[in-house]
């Protein structure tokens, strides 16, 4: 608490002297909001500085219009990514890149314009601040679990328009001190300079970002810019929309990599000049085929090529060769014996130690890829790379409690423990109850193993406390990104004020998938490294070896920007301006939905009418999802933090080599900083994260992890789709139509569990869903309609397969807990037809006579090997309620080789992942199979 | 042909070795039991090889017996083959080290495999401790296989996760388990077997189906995926393990071939022990 108290006092003092209006800072937020003011200011200044002169006049006006609504707090419920996008589009000038060139002018402009804006905004902003702050306070009294409250804070910060004079350059050095020191310094400086300096001078810092293709992007940023500003600019430069998988890295002491925190100011994170970053994949998507855009896959490929060449991603000889051959196909196209002489390959690097033999193999395989487009070659590359055991594993050096060197690997599924390449243990996220660090120790608390009673805590020793914190942050981020539907708000509970407040604040995978699902732009043009070469040779420029050398030293930090880069920049810029030309891409994808901006129905796709019989051997699944928007009260969930008690020493099953450590209660003195280490984000000595304390509402449920029991196989016969597992997520959102402000709160309303007549079932998943709450619950769902009371309304689909009847129709509607099973005998012997309909009770919208006003309709079709998905999205407004209805018709085609159960479950899972805040209201499974002969084979 | 298949790949070749008469007297065994009837053992083995060669159409490469190597029939322990690479092991039992002969190396190289030798004198590895699921390796740490051996295996097959599983009560990891299908682990019912399965499940990102077999020894079966024949499973005969055989008989998608292994079992031989399966086409 020392830190907090100290800075609080200072801030208060400062606030009083400086500007009476700001004195209402909430104590425990003092230091943070001080930061925010600065950031706020950053955005402000950027706004005005970069706007061209004419528009800058209108900018304060639009702000006035916007602010009151924010002040009322509706935007608190905006999902963080939505909010960010919004502020981005306002704060981020489109012609930023051009502006950069004229640095000096730009500063002058700001100086000119700022004073009036400050004057204009000060009064009202101050007034609104009162309101917002009050709102916030109320909010935080409830221990809020919902992540949607987080943007609220940011929003309120945004409208604090208090202008503080700029800090002098020396401040940066002072930041190497401890946090409280820093705050004090800031305060003093401010008091000093405030009176004399009314006009504002914008200090910019040059940032350089190494991109994945080896080029360098540089830009000037306002000194107090947050990480997000830089990241957004880089993504804009790259024309990348699915950016949540990526991040910016900076290196400390040459080898320690740190992720730039988007929500914090850059200068507080990076200590040394120049500001040099590396654009890097942060979350490796487990299934790259689910990425929406080829350009995203391309960047992922570039990253993986780097990972491979640097040895971070080990591969066998054959895999090196195979992946290399896809690289060649993507970069050079089909093998051409005339063009591709024996040397063409040596320009590329495929492996850390490339041999002639490997190159020969690459060429041999390259010849077999004839006809693959670059995008297809990238996809093949990724399909193979994603299966590598170290794909997406972020390794950290550590020691176990006996001092043995091990590696901790953080990945999408959990935490892996390695000793000399061997996996010696693994903790899936569902097994981990708490992740914490204290000084240089890193701890995980895991669920009791079967037959054990006590939770155990396993400790690891990291090289230093910053490494421990880094690992902890990576864990928090990976867990949130891959396992949660929405990010968790930084906790304000008293347990956590001791340590780091860090939480992942970006979009989760579920959210990014949902957002990217609505990306609606023509596939953007982008250049692969080779196409650059070709275009240059057309321009008469020499065919550059330099270009290909990028591939050679992908892992090297610098490949200087050349004239070529300018060309690339120009091309990308063209792409951007295309976007700006009235096409809707510029606005964030989800705003499209919410504003209902989309025009005109494009097609009327096949919808719920899955009952019309399909061709034999087809399975038709029609998942109807509805998103209801209604004026509803805000629901809040109180989270009870686990009390951090003494841990019991338990040995872990399965050869766990890391001894369990006895932990004592956290002592509050531990915050007294021992290190003189620098950036504030690194000086916290402790941090805790409880992956599951709000698990009931936000964990992605269909995850198979956690239940370690394998399915027992009872006869390996061809399976018939008999059950549908469906998680119902209700979403309540506030819409105030006048202001495009949408409040959204997602929560799980009910949970549907499936039943199946075979032993083999989805019981595991169901159990997994439940185990957070009642781990021991055994589901008895064989053929009977049972109900499991979770959360709100349980919605259960169950159906059984009578042994005799070949054709049946099962309709289950749990609206009235009534089951209708109509069975009719049909003299069909060769095929088996089955239709299972599941409907949710709460949803009568479409059935009603009032069709509402159709805002937009859209049909998207996508195909994979065995499934065809038709997505039909309609948006209607009905009596003030806006409704988005997404109907998916998924046709799974295939013979006995395809696991239909799995394909169906996958389809539903995907539908849910794409629209996590929607409810699945209807699932119709229409199944036709040709009956296989039992005696065959 | 993609190198990373979703399951054990189609099998085209098999390497086997004839059994020497010395197997009766000198073969290593965990516990004393009945004497091996050589004639009967030879008949059983010939039947086994015959199934591979004739019934399943594999190209079988048969190495000659070596009387000085009583355990040489158990070729599985001498080499681990996965995709294009063969790792010649360093068996845990010193008396068996010579089984990894030049002939074996030549045989594997003749199949165009990239042969890697385990030269580290601190490493031991028996192929019987290596379970490849198609997605990853599990290596039993037993009396015959040590950590270093497992590390070398991990270095050799870099694409795959290699997890270690302590094995206490049995000779090898595969003394009580084996793959019985692309995603299906056959596992014995003993406490040790179940415990090992738990460990494997905890270590894996992937979820396998399991087939619980009443008898540990019968849980070692030989699964092959053969073009035009599909899933083929050689399992212990009902005469030996009636209860276990019943479980296998429930596998409707498999071509089931019961095989007796009465004699070699006396010297700890199981079905997987007597061949090395290679899924390469010879022209590559």
Automatic annotation (TrEMBL), chain B:
It comes from the Eukaryota. The active site is at 172 (proton donor), 273 (nucleophile). Keywords: Hydrolase. The keyword Transport does not apply. Substrate binds at residues 28, 71, 76-77, 96, 144, 267. GO terms for biological process: citrulline metabolic process; L-arginine catabolic process; negative regulation of cell population proliferation; negative regulation of cellular response to hypoxia; negative regulation of vascular permeability; positive regulation of nitric oxide biosynthetic process; regulation of systemic arterial blood pressure. One of its GO terms (molecular function) is amino acid binding. GO terms for cellular component: mitochondrion. InterPro entries: DDAH-like. Belongs to the DDAH family. This is Dimethylarginine dimethylaminohydrolase 1. It comes from Crocodylus porosus (Saltwater crocodile). The lineage of its organism: Eukaryota, Metazoa, Chordata, Craniata, Vertebrata.
